[in-house]
């Protein structure tokens, strides 16, 4: 799949509510999209765009295979000089305000436009997009069946740029009790909590990998799966830690990709190849996109 074709797949979402965060959005809905089909929300990282993140991650290609719609929220340089989502700004990281509300409004518009199954909405993101995925999962847990945070940070641990820089470097981590409380205070869930998939490079020098463990710890008590993982297995040569609840359902997973820097893990070549290598789209022999979709039950 060449980059030009992938880019041309996406359509602008022209209008979505009041858009208090002044964001933009693009969508991909495959031909023959079924009534009550699923929706994936994919958030790009800093210096990226909706189009470049789609090309690198391969989400629209996979969506065409499995019959899912994809929403790509987009940041503007007017909001953030690096084009990243403002996951650490008080006006943007709480329910019913700023960028968080803009993304929620986008989701609502796509659900209405395309008859999305409200019980099958998922969100993922890289770096600032990963941190913003944490925001959405905490602020609107009733909206999402699952989330995947790639090279991101836990919810609510920074509310200034200085704090954000410290947290990115792995300094000043919070206790399990405080991490848990941040999510519980963000919103009152409507009967369910989203499953959580966490991905991080073991040699990430932009966002320290200790943040991955903090994300896991933030959600362990909420899912009642505290302590060591239920099992550890190997997927495409990399360790996968899994926490299962009392019913045996996998509710949290964590991949630390040894030797990988800052970016989204992809497998662009060979059998099942997906996406395209590029800046922050790192060829390491495992497709986080394919695995995340499988974890969510979108593919077999």
UniProtKB/TrEMBL annotation:
On whether Phosphoprotein is a keyword of this UniProt record, the answer is no
- Say if the entry is tagged with keyword Hydrolase: yes
What's an example GO cellular component term for this entry? extracellular region
Q: Signal sequence span per UniProt? A: none
Q: Name one GO molecular function term.
A: hydrolase activity
Task: Write the record's keywords in alphabetical order, separated by commas.
Answer: Hydrolase, Signal
Q: What is this protein called?
A: Esterase, PHB depolymerase family
């Amino acid at each position: 799949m060449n980059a030009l074709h992938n880019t041309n797949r996406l359509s602008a979402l022209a209008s979505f509510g009041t858009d208090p965060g002044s964001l933009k959005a693009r969508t991909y809905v495959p031909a023959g999209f079924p009534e009550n089909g699923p929706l994936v929300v994919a958030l790009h990282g800093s210096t990226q765009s909706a189009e470049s993140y789609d090309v690198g991650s391969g989400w629209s290609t996979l969506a065409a295979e499995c019959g899912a719609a994809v929403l790509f929220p987009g940041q503007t340089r007017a909001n953030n000089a690096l084009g990243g989502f403002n996951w650490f700004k008080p006006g943007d990281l709480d329910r019913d305000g700023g960028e968080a509300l803009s993304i929620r409004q986008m989701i609502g518009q796509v659900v209405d436009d395309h008859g999305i199954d409200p019980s099958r909405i998922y969100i993922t993101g890289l770096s600032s997009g990963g941190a913003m995925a944490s925001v959405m999962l905490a602020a609107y847990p009733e909206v999402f069946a699952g989330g995947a945070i790639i090279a991101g940070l836990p919810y609510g641990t920074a509310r200034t740029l200085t704090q954000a820089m410290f947290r990115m470097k792995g300094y000043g981590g919070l206790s399990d009790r405080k991490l848990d409380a941040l999510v519980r205070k963000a919103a009152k869930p409507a009967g369910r909590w989203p499953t959580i998939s966490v991905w991080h490079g073991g040699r990430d020098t932009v966002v320290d990998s200790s943040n991955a463990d903090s994300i896991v710890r933030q959600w362990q008590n909420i899912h009642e799966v505290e302590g060591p993982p239920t099992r550890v297995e190997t997927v495409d040569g990399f360790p996968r830690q899994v926490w299962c609840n009392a019913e045996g359902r996998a509710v949290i997973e964590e991949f630390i990709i040894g030797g990988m820097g800052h970016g989204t893990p992809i497998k662009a070549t060979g059998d099942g190849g997906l996406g395209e290598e590029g800046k922050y789209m790192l060829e390491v022999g495992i497709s986080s996109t394919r695995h995340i979709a499988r974890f969510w039950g979108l593919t077999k």
